Amino acid sequence: MTIAKRYGHLPMVLATAALLTVGVGVANAGERTGATAATTTAAAAPSGWEGITREQVRIDLGAGWVTDGELTYPAAAGGRLPLVVFLHGSGRNDMNQTVPGGKGSTFVRLAQAAGREGYATLRFNKRGVTGIGPVRTTDPAQLTPEKPYQRTQLDAAAVVRFAARSPRVNPSKIMLLGHSEGTNVAANLAAEPKRYGIPKPAGVVAMAVVGKPVEQLVTFQVYGRLLLQLHDEFDLDGDGRLTAVEASDGLVGQPEEVAALFRSVLLDGGRVKAGTDRNHDGRIAVDAEAGPVLRELTGIDAYPEIPSLDPFLVTYLKDLGRFPTVERALPRFSGPTLLLNGENDLETPARAALAADAAVAAAGNRDHKVVIYPGLAHTMNLSPRYADELGEPDQRVIDEVQGWLKAHR
Fold it and tell me: How far is CA 219 from the centre of its chain?
């Protein structure tokens, strides 16, 4: 398997790692797909929804698609409530942003935590998704729109307008909570609410922040992370060069696929690979010698037409690149912001979140906060440094968001 094939779908991890864009195609037992307009209460809900009413809604996103959503609110609450709108990462995600392999979801526990603080919440299936799983339509026009990121942003604006019309919602207190791609969507909507026909958001929560241009992020995902791993896990003496012993030791404990990749670049039996060791000194310089080989293998220099990348993903990357990043858009928003990132995030690195928060501060916004979590990865879950494991957000993240919502109610 070539490196281009192995890493060909990594750009989609701007959502919540590559697998989240695939889904399992089957609705999870006990979850409602929102196919009806019925109202359910905590008595019929799974654990965690106690005291929260769950109302199934239908939202017209325009361009021929009406999606299912779920509006939740404290059962005992009266009047108009503050609301959190959840904005997914890239890919065809359901309203929960269900994690593959039975590993839970990104949004459910956060929505429950918001409800405990007196907030209404609104989750919705992205365009082309018909149910929890995610279950997808077979209509190619809905799955592969011509301008996919712009369509996602317009869809999110339609959801916010729907929320603002609800008799349960205070339209002046709508918070946007985005994950990965959703951080970019939230920042762009918050920067120009009039352009998108929405009320000015009351606050923005961004998890796994798309703070830098997509080309930089994808280059890191596909290529840069490999050099980082060689420096971090192989080059123990820190001299920037790998002996055959260092290369062999570095392969120990690596997943088979990762080990095969690095072995093909670094070793020929018990010796360093002559084709990579260009100056024939018996060591491989990580940046100067392994770097060019990995660039060629990944095909990163052909960005966005990376070999083996699905043509639709190429279209997506081009379209996303037309829009401001969080670092550029969010400083134009004067409301409170909370930026959260995992230190082990190899898709949207923590450094990008720090840069975005610094830009918000430089713009004069005094109500801003950034938190970087050691040990957490792209889905805000505990994960080894280079493993890209998926999971539900860590309890520390849930607590941080809940406390921030409480303070800004």
Answer: 16
**Mean pLDDT throughout 25-47?**
40
Asked whether residue 1 carries a pLDDT value surpassing 50, the answer given is no
Distance CA 190, CA 226 (A): 35
pLDDT value at residue 32: 35
* Beta pairing class for 65-74 and 271-272: unpaired
Query: Residue 247, SS3?
Result: helix
pTM of this structure: 0.90
Question: According to the model, what pLDDT value does residue 46 have?
Answer: 57
- Report d(CA 122, CA 276) in Å as an integer: 53
HSE of 395, CA atoms in CB hemisphere, 13 A: 0
Task: Record the tokens describing residue 290, joined without a space.
Answer: 């392994």
State yes or no: pLDDT of 18 exceeds 70.
no
Rounded Cα–Cα distance for residues 156 and 298 (Å): 33
pLDDT digits (tens, 9 = 90+) for 347-364: 999 999 999 999 999 999
Give yes or no for residue 141 having a pLDDT over 50.
yes
- 10 Å CB burial of residue 167 (0-12, 13-18, 19+) is exposed
Cα–Cα nearest to 130, from 117, 141, 139: 139
3-class SS of residue 272: strand
Both tokens of 327, joined, read: 């670092």
Question: pLDDT by residue (tens digit) across 227-250?
Answer: 999 999 999 999 999 999 999 999
All residues at 6 or more sequence positions from 136 whose CB lies less than 8 Å from its CB, including other chains? 23, 25, 92, 128, 129, 130, 143
> Quick one: DSSP state of residue 276?
T
Q: 76 vs 50, 53, 72, 119, 257, CA distance in Å?
A: 11, 9, 12, 12, 53
pLDDT for the residue numbered 313? 96
Residue pointed to by tokens 């991890």: 13
Q: Which of 107, 54, 7 is nearest to 308 (CA)?
A: 7
State the burial class of residue 330 (Cβ atoms within 10 Å of its Cβ: 0-12, 13-18, 19+).
buried
Q: How far is CA 88 from CA 85, 248, 285, 320, in A?
A: 10, 40, 40, 15
Determine the longest span between alpha carbons in the chain, in angstroms: 76
Strands 169-179 and 203-207: parallel
User: Which pLDDT band, with edges at 50, 70 and 90, does 188 fall under?
Assistant: very high
Distance of CA 374 to the CA centre of its chain: 18
